[in-house]
């Protein structure tokens, strides 16, 4: 066993010496097929709350939005919650705001969103939806108060869908005891893959992921499969199903749209952007982001993380350069403000970049190749959740110098923030057991410890 471990370590280090790695791992090709709906039935009791999901409900981490659907009646529309341990187990009640919507020939159930506020930090709460035999009970743990050396672990997933591959990705993540919250980089149910954007697929997806989303917050980003813009069936309101179903605390960060917002969580400051909303100069998203960066206090939240759907650096021929116009608008701000990490989805494979920037380029100087830049973020494409559209296995050849590691497999990542200077990052491919790491690196914080990380990166070669 020790010999094997040493051999693997040698592989790590030999891999480190190379510039960019295209993994030699070859995933056996097979069709991506959706799981049958009967795998995810509604709860057996009449009108019981279902599709339960939670997300952070304020900017600081003391709020939680609890969302659920009751299929037939408006009630129950109340959350009862209490501290799981300690002397103060008094029960509190919060009424939900309830909505529903029609989409072509589909009518949603009653969709409830209740915001729990002024929760204690770092505390486990039990919450209950419904009463008597329809009641369902769940729990969550609030994050520690924001602080520079507060450890916290995020899961990272994107483009999940609801295939057997999606299930593998999801079950692997759920089996990892480290994840405390999920950074989700967009494309949820893929309902729009079906005729008339069959919104029943949204309901099934809500039930599929409930065993995680009901217990830990998923930080939502909108992708192209959330747009659901279909004028051919007179569905002219972009993001209609997504915005009814997934509420986020956008007003707390002075945003005017749920499609872009920010939160603080433990030692991380997370900015969520929308690749499918206007971001040109003077647009609401541009103006908001411009005012957002000066608010980030790296002494309180050292780790500055951006989530967006369409990657700015992608060496896959699928969706190649779709994120380019947003890169032109925002990359300079990312570099000037020393963003640590940018997570994207959209491309159905995995890729991690070097710390590079292309901000020198302008239309007259012609300097249009990315260069090493210690102030630049690492860009990670993690649209490898396993949805029905299949794998993106057509990488540009040769591998561009900005690409540190890439592999056409499905999987998820874990980001373990240790303190203000170090975070350990791992990527887990579905074909391996969860403890096996297919790509890993230590990230050094750009504000507190902006040293080169190259010696700690280790794309494993199989
Ligand atoms: Fe996408």
From TrEMBL:
It holds the Pfam family Metallophos_C. Residues 153-350 form the Calcineurin-like phosphoesterase domain. Residues 376-439 form the Purple acid phosphatase C-terminal domain. It catalyses: a phosphate monoester + H2O = an alcohol + phosphate. Residues 49-142 form the Purple acid phosphatase N-terminal domain. Coiled coil: none annotated. SUPFAM superfamilies: Metallo-dependent phosphatases, Purple acid phosphatase, N-terminal domain. Residues 1-19 form the signal peptide. Its EC number is 3.1.3.2. Keywords: Glycoprotein, Hydrolase, Iron, Metal-binding, Signal, Zinc. The keyword rRNA processing does not apply. Its cofactor is Fe cation; Cu(2+); Zn(2+); Mn(2+). GO terms for molecular function: acid phosphatase activity; metal ion binding. Homodimer; disulfide-linked. Belongs to the metallophosphoesterase superfamily. Purple acid phosphatase family. This is Purple acid phosphatase. It comes from Dorcoceras hygrometricum.
